[in-house]
Amino acid sequence: MTVAQPNRLAGGRIDRARTLSFRFDGRRYTGHPGDTLASALVANDVALLGRSFKYHRPRGLISAGSEEPNALVTLAHGGAHTPNTRATMVELVDGLVAAPQNAWPSLRFDTLAVNDLAAPLLTAGFYYKTFMWPRGFWERVYEPAIRRAAGLGRLDTAPDPDSYDRGFLHCDLLVVGAGPAGLMAALTAGRAGARVILADEDTVAGGRLNAETHAIDDAPGADWAAAARAELAALPSVRVMPRTTVFGVFDHGTYGALERAAPDAPSHAPRETFWRIFARACTLCAGATERPIAFPGNDRPGILLAGAARAFVNRWAAAPARRAAVFTNNDDGHRSAADLAAAGIEVVALIDTRADAPDCPFAAETLRGAQVIGTSGRRRLTAITVRAAGGALRRIACGALAVSGGWNPNLHLAAQHRARPAWDDAIAAFVPVPGAVPGQRAAGAAAGVFSTAGALAGGAAAARAALEDLGLSAGAPAPLPRTEDAPVRVTAFWHVTGAPGRAWLDFQNDVTVKDVALAQAEGFRSVEHVKRYTTLGMATDQGRTASTAAIGVMAALSGQGIAETGTTMVRPPYTPVSLGALAGRARGPRFRPVRRTPTHVFAEARGAVFTEAGQWLRAQYYPRPGETHWRESVDREVRAVRGAVGVCDVTTLGKIDVQGADAAAFLDRIYCNRMATLPIGRVRYGLMLREDGIVMDDGTAARLGPDHFIVTTTTANAGAVTRHMEFARQCLWPGMDVQLVSVTDAWAQIAVAGPNARRLLRRIVDPPHDLSNQTFPFMACGAVTVCGGLGGRLFRISFSGELAYELAVPARYGNALMDELLDRGADLGATPYGTEALGVLRIEKGHAAGNELNGRTTAAMLGLGRMVSGEKDSIGAVLSRREGLAGDDRRLAGFVPLDGTSAIPGGAHLLRPGARAEAANVLGWISSAAFSPTLESPIALGFVALAGARMGATLRAVSPVDGRDIPVRAVSPHFVDPDGGRLRG
Amino acid sequence: MAEYRLAPTFACGGAAPLLARHGAVTITERPDLALAALAQRAGDAALEALVRDVTGAPPPGPGRISGQAGGVQLAWTGPGQWLALAPADRHPDLAGMLVARLGAAASVTDQAGGWVCLDLDGVGCRALLERLCPLDTGAMDAGRAERTGIEHMGCLVICEVPGQRYRVMAARSFAVSLADMLETVARGLV
User: Fold this and answer.
1) Quick one: B50 and B91 in the same domain?
2) Which of these, A97, A143, A257, A942, could form a disulfide with A926 (CB 3.0-4.6 Å)?
């Protein structure tokens, strides 16, 4: 049977008509819609929620919001687990299962709590001082042990079953935070017709209005917030985004936001969405975070922030305890005492550090000028020790202590552009500096204006100012609602002195006042250094409740002011962001888009094995039944090309359509060899250099008309070459009449290669076209029709060294053409081949490809030095002749193993026999290697210094990667048909 | 004439053009478009009048598409560059027609199979597009045509009816990935 909710009060903004069941730490509890996991645990009188990071101290809730440092739980969902979830931010749903973290064997009996006894040793810098020797132990022994003992939740290493999304939003005004200031700002701008996004991390807009008892226009503040929500929902230009945390501001008015799905969202919907918001202006109404006071034993479960205590009571009707005390340095703490008392909680004492504090009629007694100097209770608070103004000590029994050390404006988004906030003595807090982030204005508590009336006025004014900046009309100002306008009365008080025991500043990283003092004593004076040395503010909560108090402590210890002490750098994210949300859909097969060739369906149907070539998915080889190793398939495909005819989709090679009166002159400057002289109906091999004289890419240019060329590039460089040519056209020679457009995707291009290629094409290309060697010789090109009238283009070019053509048809016909080629060529031995055979064929022929065009090779090295024309200028021509580059005597060569059987390792270094395998002795390297079915031997291409190795020389191919050391002989790179008889046949 | 013809395939890889309905969005593959790239020859001032003669409107400026749906439309793709779109049944040889009508004023390149075109219909279009591309689709009016990126794919997004009807185009080889991205997001919104 489930336990009733013993600490549930009357009232609150929860739906008591429905009861939800959930589990925490293995036990069943109940709550209601509207509860957070935190409020439901409070209502069930569960105070112990976790163990601390370093000392494994019992910990409970401190806050009711996103700043919570202690109540981190692991949530189970969909078979997976999400660690480090703040219980205060978890909406209660039926069946929720949460587990505490960092406790073993259990939350109540945690053996590592012995760390707490060793606390005198575990001070700031402990690791740096202790685990220095022996050398090498850190990685193998110390760090793993420390990581096991410390840390928060454990990462679930199984794939995340949830989906995530990301997107882009645009608005005139982004309002961050939907408290009174944010609602007023959104109403002001929305009524004026501006495009507004109102984002708030809470489940329901209203901010503190939902947790307070203030009246607005004589009605409860939460009712006013509800009315504002309704009005905003009806404004077409306003988008209200609850459950959305704006976590960072980036350049040019871009904000990052994380939206969490509502618990009732369908299970297939994204669990979180990462939004990039492009805002012309921003109103920062993120409210404020209350800060604790550091006193001995201040981390005991049951001690929480005063504003959180009254939020639990007012909003969720959950009493932290039936007997409570309040410890404050400001008037707002008195408000908590009043609200707790009004809810029926016995407020046994209000302890105010100020000697001149007002009397609190709601507490049994008001102790002025007094301090809490100790606490007791094993797993939760049972009593506090108070030092009265005169120094007398008193013990007061209570189950909860509500603490207020004042409020810090949530200025993070105003301080992320290297802006530093300013110290404001009047409210003892840092406030945003106006104008620190372009286009952004803070209003309400985020600007240090803590009264409700001030928030409403500030929100309206900030929105009107933003609209004016944007040149939008704000209309006549509407009268502001009437509400409380209490002044802020606070006296800075950071930590209790003169009392024994540890006082925590950073609860999540277990950093105490003593750690900060030690850091200062050891010479760490800069606030940034103290942060790193003590780890204060470096946990997942980024010190939301810790930083200002720590700065206060540092200032007190050093004797300098808080403004002089300064703050640490504020960086995104404001609250933790799942990496899954940043990835969005881009995971698994959707990591990046895939480009499919026009013959993809054909290849799939033939059982092709695919390989990625950049974004392209290409058929690598086509295994046949009975073939057990890829080499069998590839060797067969190579033999088919050399002996009959093969067909291969080469669509992925870049195709650029070049037109214009100056097209020929343009190509003359792009390619290092002559193109302007190319006759119409002919193709020429072309080499283009980078500005620095190194080879950029190779390919072909086909002349279709006096002012019309088709240029091809390698698959890998299609984008780079297009960019390069566009740059030349637009920036280098804008006066030339040249137009470029990519047609890579428009045409399916299929290589038909082998002695039977012409016979096969005669069955495909329509009869009027004469394919004879006389009419259509090697390097001819032209328009043809195929298969009964379909327009295409035929190029007689060869990458394999065989009689070969490339036939281009509109992309949508590529698949059918491939089928047709194989059907019609069955008796000719027509065989589809993939990229692997393509590679073997070109290595056998000695054609350079990506491995040879690797950004370090020159035309001369490729054996193409004479292609760099001296009769004209072209990009890279001058620098290709520069000293050092021109003198490089390494040349492309072929290599065969001396024993005729050993594979030559790709990437191997070339050395003389007997030379030590070290850099100084390296003569060159192997760039491409394959087994040649034609030669029935391994072969390779590589670059080798002529000075050291003439053709026929014996060398060694040494691979430092796997230790192979293969004797090889340098030969001509043209293993097959060196005089080109076949391709011209 | 040879005795047979080749059968075209669809960019999204199906036996028929893609047609998918997910909640408030319908995604339709449009293989029935004729496409051609158009680029102004240097200094040729005659182009504007010639284009007006073909489409009924001058060549559009950045971010715009001109002409009437059902006829020949031009979408701006770069300085002095446009993509011409027309129903393939009315203009089976769009590039040839443009060469004939525009003469030496423009360079024309057939792009019939170069692009995949997916039409989005329904009130869910904006919710879909805002999760896909950085364009301010909420501010696009009819006739807006913008180059943008969708999950690393270069795309052209055309607004036909604000909030209701958009056209997304990308290089044909991306068709399967583009359709998958659109459908994945659309399914998450149902």
Assistant:
1) yes
2) A942
